[in-house]
């Protein structure tokens, strides 16, 4: 996949008016995601992405303690001013759902296992919990 194709997928999925808006959203989410995915998962994801996207992802220093899902959305909003909470959730989920599709089931589940509870919905998945 090429960078422009990924931008167009974000534009279509997120119903953004322009490619520039979709690119801004993609860059913001990849920047925050890059500080949350590490190790083999980070390397595998980078290999699946266009070079431009992989560069944004891998340029980030992984956090020692990942943000909560709402904190992640807030961080994305900080990269997209002015951006409301609902707009930031939409942007985050749009990109993370596409990332999950590109990554496939196994890699998506491994990335989610690295993150605190609450991220599954952002990746377009139900968050199931075991019952006692």
Written account of the structure:
The protein is 65% helix and 0% strand. It has 132 residues and is mostly helical.
Offer a few descriptive terms:
132 residues
Offer a quick outline of the entry.
By secondary structure, the protein is an all-alpha fold.
Helix and strand arrangement:
Elements: H1 3-14, H2 19-34, H3 39-48, H4 51-58, H5 69-78, H6 85-114
Helix pairs in contact: 1-2, 1-6, 2-4, 2-5, 2-6, 3-4, 3-6, 5-6
The helicity comes to 55-70%
Distance between the termini: 43 Å
Weakly predicted, low-confidence segments: none
Mean pLDDT metric: 94
Estimate what percentage of residues fall within beta strands. Answer: under 5%
Total beta-strand segments:
0
Going by helix content, strand content and strand pairing, the class is mainly alpha
Give a short account of the largest sheet: none
- Along the chain, the helix and strand elements come as HHHHHH
Backbone CA Rg: 14 Å
Number of helices: 6
Shape: globular
């Amino acid at each position: 996949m090429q960078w422009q194709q990924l931008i167009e997928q974000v534009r279509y999925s997120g119903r953004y008016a322009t490619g520039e808006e979709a690119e801004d959203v993609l860059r913001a989410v990849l920047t925050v995601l890059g500080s949350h995915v590490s190790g083999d998962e980070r390397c595998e994801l980078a290999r699946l992405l266009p070079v431009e996207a992989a560069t944004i992802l891998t340029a980030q220093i992984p956090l020692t303690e990942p943000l909560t899902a709402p904190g992640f959305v807030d961080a994305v909003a900080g990269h997209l001013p002015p951006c409301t909470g609902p707009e930031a959730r939409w942007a985050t989920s749009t990109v993370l759902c596409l990332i999950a599709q590109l990554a496939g089931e196994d890699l998506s589940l491994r990335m989610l296992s690295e993150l605190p509870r609450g991220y599954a919905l952002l990746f377009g998945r139900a968050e199931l919990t075991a019952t006692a």
